[in-house]
Design a protein that fits this description.
mainly alpha; two-stranded antiparallel ribbon; 56% helix; 6% strand
């Protein structure tokens, strides 16, 4: 799944485009985009998980997500829908094509530099996968994809959704976690994620989401 900074960048862009078409409470919408990752209930439930096209990876079942969360008249749920839509798009349209997945060798290979990793250390907390996000977080801020002003305006405790699966949350607030990642100023190497391609994925997914929401 994409990191919180990527979700915030997507939310900013979707909000920027949607606000020209419909009234949208930015605080509620941005909050909704963060809420799914704060739930401590089994991610299979909170993320409506099903198998992705690569064995061992999972994506949201978008038919179920759409039924539960695609609500134009509920800004928080709409933000949550955008979060899960991006989870799906990121895995299937960015992460899977970005790497090679030789199942017989149980490796993850970056074809751009021939670096390879074992799946378990690659995806573990503070592993290679998350290091890749640490390298691009500050680039998203410096490029204006994320507004620090908006972040400062969001509440420490995000609003409840009325859905228990999303309202049982970690004790650590999202802002505390955000600050932790903000302090990890790792130099961008491009060894894991290609920043330009990742940014294009965010833009393309934002455009698709806006068209879908306007058409509803």
């Amino acid at each position: 799944m994409p990191g919180n900074f990527c979700h915030l960048a997507l939310a900013e862009e979707v909000y920027r485009q949607l606000s020209s078409y419909m009234p949208l409470d930015k605080i509620k919408f941005m909050s909704g985009n963060l809420i799914p990752d704060l739930a401590i209930v089994d991610k299979k439930i909170s993320h409506f998980r099903k198998g992705a096209t690569i064995k061992g990876l999972f994506v949201p079942d978008m038919a179920k997500v759409e039924k539960e969360l695609f609500a134009i008249d509920d800004t928080i749920k709409l933000g949550m829908y955008c979060h899960l839509y991006f989870d799906y798009s990121f895995i299937e349209n960015f992460l899977i094509p970005e790497f090679e997945w030789p199942y017989e060798r149980m490796k993850i290979v970056n074809p751009r530099n021939h670096m390879e990793w074992d799946p378990e250390p690659f995806f573990k907390k503070d592993g290679v996968y998350y290091q890749g996000f640490n390298e691009i977080n500050h680039l998203l801020i410096s490029d204006g994809c994320i507004s620090i002003k908006t972040i400062s305006e969001l509440p420490e405790d995000l609003p409840n959704t009325g859905m228990e699966v999303f309202d049982v949350r970690c004790e650590k607030t999202w802002k505390a976690e955000f600050e932790e990642y903000l302090n990890k100023k790792e130099e961008y190497t491009g060894n894991i994620f290609n920043y330009d391609r990742l940014k294009r994925c965010i833009q393309k997914t934002s455009d698709q989401l806006v068209k879908k929401i306007i058409a509803k």
